[in-house]
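To whoever picks this up:

The parser on our side crashed when reading a file containing two proteins. I've narrowed it down to the boundary between the first structure block and the second sequence. Both blocks are reproduced below exactly, byte for byte. First block:
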Amino acid sequence: MGNAAAEMDAIYRVQRHIYDASRKYYLLGRDQLLDSLDPPPGGSVLEIGCGTGRNLILASERYPAARFFGVDVSSVMLETAAASIARHGLAHCIHLAQADAARLDTKPLFGSDDFDRVFISYALSMIPPWREALACAYQAVRPGGSLHIVDFGEQSRLPSLFRAGLRRWLKKFSVYPRAELEAELRRLANETGAELTFERPFRDYACSAILRKPAPVGTSVREFALSEELADHDGRREDGRRPE
């Protein structure tokens, strides 16, 4: 985690203070991703590459009955996220930890190794071992749950000069759109029996995907969601945590 954390800290040590104000103009599709989450009551949601905490804060306000978790490799971004979450009075329902997305193990961090929803917003394009990060993210999805992704697309339906200029600018921040993302997601879907929805909104400026993991054999998605909701309710203490 050392090299990746140091690189991200160097990029965002100053930028984190203006990140949310500037990124809203070109990180398109993030709010649509949050709309698609729709976690079950009492469900758990994990963001990989949570940055300033912007998405987690908005998601927790939309889905107040869910529990939220976020990981990021950058310690300075996590400092900003923790401060913002505290200002919004959401520290009780959003939990953060430092982790490398390509070596993710959430059990020691949060006491759970799977979640109803996992999402990644404009982070795979910044992770060199992005395939490993994608595999870890999918592994963290609970059976019957879903992985949600939004990131830069190929801009294939946009003017070539715009595309070239955008690529040069993104490169300055170590951002590289993943042309093979759809193929990798389809491979995961085919190998695991998952259902994939893949779109290229904004004339392929962005790409968005939902990969739905199958429920256990012999259980409908609705039945499984209900059983998980009841298990979460019965297994938590009064403080909302599971007994050790």
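<<boundary where parser fails>>
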Amino acid sequence: MQIKSMYIGILMFFMVTSGISLASVLNMEKVTPFEENVSSLTMTENYTYITQGHDLVVLGGSNVSDASEIARLATPWEAHDVIISGDHAYVVNATNSLSVVNITDPSSPIIEGNYEPSGLIVDIDAAGKYAYAVDHYNGLIIEDISNPNSPIYVSTLNLNDLAYGIELSGKYAYVTVWNGLMIIDIRDPNSPIVVGNYAVPEYNNDVYVSGNYAYMICDESNSLEIVDISNPSSPMFAGVYVYETGGQAYDVAVSGNYVCLVVSNGIIILDITDPEAPILTGSYEINSSVSDIAVAGNYVYVAEDDGSLLTLNLNS
């Protein structure tokens, strides 16, 4: 997310829970350096990449609280998301187009190519020289992006279901579909194969993979489903948490023994030390909508539509 002026004001947030005091468990800082909406953020070891309007903004420093803007690059379209893979940032925009940005020198990012795939792209991830795009109607589309100026179509895997989100982990792609979660072997990009299927008959939004578990948002039942993926060909139910909130959940991230679940009116923190029995650690009410979430080490960073960043220290 972009920091336009570095007079960073830090407000300590009081945490609101269902009768639970969180002060001894989590510390939250609210950083308000932005004048415009921040639509997404992604963390690397020494940099934070955010999107704001049409811009990709690079912040230097390993801690968002004291980071400073070191670069700002305008892209052709309004940016909605950014992912990092190697020396490139991939900026997804409102028209389902993709800007490929060289970030070998993060202080001087350069657009190397713009790509407009066909279909309705709802999510994308990248690893190595390949981009993995989820088409809402047509499934998984794989493109060779080793030459960013001229992406090459590699293959399509029709999932025979409406697709919503993707997460890459190792040699697998985890794709949420209307009826559950599909695990796809992507070792051969020319011939991806569905090796596992976990059925949840409802709209399934986002998924986050950590270790031997996939954490999946099941929208209609207002729940977070935890799936044991230690055997990708036979994913199994591990645990579930049903959240009581009027807001829709749409993003999830994991840091150590905590799950951070983003809903339209706030944040829910769960302790998953025992994935079979997730425990509510706390919930945070937010006046504006949350646009994105990122995890780096013991910290969770949350972007708000009003231009604020929330920093949660999970080990304090």
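After patching the parser it read the second block fine. Residues 1-25 have pLDDT under 50 and may be disordered. Residues 139 and 158 are 5 Å apart (CA to CA).
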